[in-house]
Hints:
By secondary structure, the protein is α/β, with parallel strands linked by helices. The chain folds into 2 domains: 23-272, Type I PLP-dependent aspartate aminotransferase-like (Major domain) (Aspartate Aminotransferase, domain 2, 3-Layer(aba) Sandwich), CATH 3.40.640.10; 276-396, Aspartate Aminotransferase, domain 1 (Alpha-Beta Complex), CATH 3.90.1150.10. Helix content is 42%, strand content 14%. It has 14 helices and 13 strands. It has helices at residues 23-29, 39-56, 70-81, 95-106, 124-133, 155-164, 184-187, 213-220, 233-240, 258-274, 276-296, 323-334, 361-377, 384-394, and strands at residues 12-14, 62-66, 87-92, 110-115, 139-143, 145-146, 151-152, 168-172, 191-193, 207-211, 312-316, 336-340, 349-353. It has a 7-stranded mixed beta sheet with strand order 2-10-9-8-5-3-4, with helices on both faces. It has a 4-stranded mixed beta sheet with strand order 1-12-13-11. The protein has a two-stranded antiparallel sheet with strand order 6-7. Helix 4 links the parallel strand 3 (87-92) and strand 4. Pyridoxal-5'-phosphate binds next to helix 3.
Amino acid sequence: MHARSFQPPPRTLMGPGPADVHPRVLAATARPTIGHLDPAFGAMMEELKTLLRYAFRTENALTMPVSAPGSAGMETCFVNLVEPGDKVIVCINGVFGGRMRENVLRAGGEPVVVEDDWGRAVDPEKLEDALNAHPDAKLVAFVHAETSTGACSDAKTLVEIARRHGCLTIVDAVTSLGGSPLEVDAWGIDAVYSGSQKCLSCTPGLAPVSLSERALAKVTARSTPVRSWFLDLNLVLGYWQGTDGGKGKRSYHHTAPVNALYALHEALVMLAEEGIEQAWERHRTNHLALRAGLSALGLELVVPEAERLAQLNAVAVPGGIDEAAARARLLETYSLEIGAGLGALAGKVWRIGLMGWSSRPENILLCLGALGSVLRDMGHDADTGAALAAAQAALGR
Length: 397
Ligand SMILES: *Cc1c(COP(=O)(O)O)cnc(C)c1O
């Protein structure tokens, strides 16, 4: 058999994730693999947990990366917290809320769905109504940043309502962590999960999670075993926490993805160097510059201004433009990846991500220049020069 090494083409990633990975993070993955029970690795893990607590703004002892992508972070929260028969209010305003419902069903729970339009935030009043109608609900689950539409929900208010009704909360922060203000402790979130490849700008494949004491108490008091062996926190913690709050011996559960964890550690060191609040601010400033440029191109964002995410911009495809053909041209000619619409928004929007290391001025200018000329080639009257000038002005250049 004749085989050759794979050389990925150089790309600029401005879709819904993965985002561009910083060279420092890529370099970290190439460091020598050591044993996952090596004391030096254990020390790195402890630092990693501390860095994750910084990013999540929490003191939760149970804060760690699950060895699998964001979807496994979601599944970890649901399989551990939902017991057969538990009623769970699931707010759905896009693709990922739908997956939460599926997770409740598979964990043996009973989902009660609160629906909102795709492209809108979750409506707190609808949640309040559902909780009044279902006083026996145990949990409330929602997506903070709906990557499928670009809508940001008011997590603080939703959690406050859930807690007032005595429910624990599961919050999807896959796209919000590192990109939008997220205050796990101050808002009282019980279980939160994220992904490494979105605003943390790490390689894909890891899912940071954090559980409050209240959530952990529900997990340890379960009367039935968790329906997943791999994701059962009662077992995983023997490795990630060891006994005796991290000082005891770590026991083998699965082989940790050693080099991927180096990468996450480096990405979080970079986040700490920048400062989490500065990272939120950078995402916001760059979003405003992209928006100014898109608007000069005659393009509109589909999410109402007050509910918009900075890191994921859903742009309405202008009439007469073939959205898939435009994306293909961006990739072929400019090596630029942007995302397609999903579900209810398929064929109607492009999703332009400004996540993590992708959220920088040169990417905005590349995207506006490339999109402007592709649209012009396809017959749309787009003024690329005006778009670049508008973005530059917003960036203060
Ligand atoms: C990307 C994403 C996920 C899933 O993460 P994977 O790493 O693709 O498994 C879940 N929720 C939201 C909101 C996401 O954006």
